[in-house]
Write a structure and sequence with these properties.
alpha/beta
């Protein structure tokens, strides 16, 4: 196989030849982010998907992100480097389970986190991201009966800051669930001047220990604008690549998981699904124009509506 730099050059050549763009989430490996046309969080990637004129989109992230691209650009080819790159949070809410839950709670509107399948979005009234959830919820009637899912931690935080009493789905992200206050306290002893930043998918005690809480974009923007020089970061470690790239004079310390998936101590907390995206897979999917994302037309017709409503409200 080609060496890394040659592979990157070939990928860019194929993009030009095929009128393709590469979208990469902050949690993918640094090499993927380096060759992407656009790097961002879920909302930013959804917006980019909606406005691109490119014929082909390569979504380097996880499966639901590629589905979102296809929902917003049904006439374009959307490629996913690895169809097995799933999401533990999306897996925690199955469409059939949500359908049953809705039937048990008539009169409720469903707010779904973007980390969901197209089938779940089709049962949803409005989609949100961690970056716009509060803004969207604030615009809904105060007396509205709301179901929020699947991320319990994010929903709990939004309830707290809005004064709502939304019914919360008991789902979670396997990465953010592994962060603990104890690890943050240990790092604060080592770096007493550091700012603690935590993603809203973290548990309430972790968020309570954070100076800055928000989406990946929120944390990145804060780091870029702050005059502080050290940051303790409680989110998937891939974001550190962009943080370090845009803030070379600052230090970013990843919070390790309480217990890693192997049961051993490790220095950072990573999503194995995001890391399934590799340069080789990007090259192969561009070369072969496969695997492509396809969504059942009936599901797609309903699933795009809550995404469009999110884009309008945010």
């Amino acid at each position: 196989m080609l060496k890394t730099e040659a592979l990157k050059a070939e990928i860019r050549r194929l993009c030009k030849e095929k009128d393709a763009i590469i979208l990469a989430h902050y949690y993918t490996i640094g090499d993927i982010q380096d060759i992407a046309d656009f790097v961002g969080d879920s909302l930013a990637l959804a917006r980019k998907a909606a406005e691109t004129d490119a014929k082909i989109m390569v979504m380097c992230g996880v499966h639901f992100m590629a589905e979102t691209c296809k929902l917003l650009s049904p006439d374009k080819m959307v490629l996913c480097p690895d169809l097995e790159a799933g999401c533990s949070l999306a897996d925690s809410c199955k469409a059939e389970d949500l359908k049953k839950f809705k039937e048990e709670h008539p009169g409720y509107q469903v707010i779904s986190y973007v980390n969901t399948t197209a089938a779940v979005k089709a049962l949803t009234d409005v989609v949100v991201t961690s970056g716009n959830a509060k803004k969207v919820v604030d615009q809904l009637p105060k007396d509205a009966k709301l179901i929020f899912g699947p991320d319990y931690n994010l929903g709990n935080y939004i309830n707290e800051v809005t004064g709502r009493e939304m019914l919360l789905w008991n789902g979670g992200c396997h990465v953010h669930e592994r962060f603990s206050v104890e690890k943050i306290i240990e790092l604060k002893k080592q770096y007493p001047e550091a700012v603690v930043m935590a993603h809203l998918e973290c548990k309430a005690p972790v968020l309570a220990a954070a100076d800055v809480k928000g989406s990946t974009a929120t944390m990145l923007n804060y780091a870029q604008q702050s005059d502080k020089k050290q940051f303790i970061v409680a989110t998937e470690a891939g974001i550190l690549h962009e943080m370090q790239r845009t803030c070379p004079d600052k230090e970013f310390i990843p919070v390790p998981p309480e217990i890693s998936e192997s049961g051993l101590e490790c220095s950072c907390n990573e999503c194995q699904y995001m890391k399934m995206n590799t340069l080789e897979k990007v090259y192969n999917c561009l070369m072969n124009e496969n695997p492509q994302i396809e969504i059942d037309p009936e599901i797609a017709k309903e699933a795009v509506k809550p995404i469009e409503r999110m884009l309008e409200l945010s």
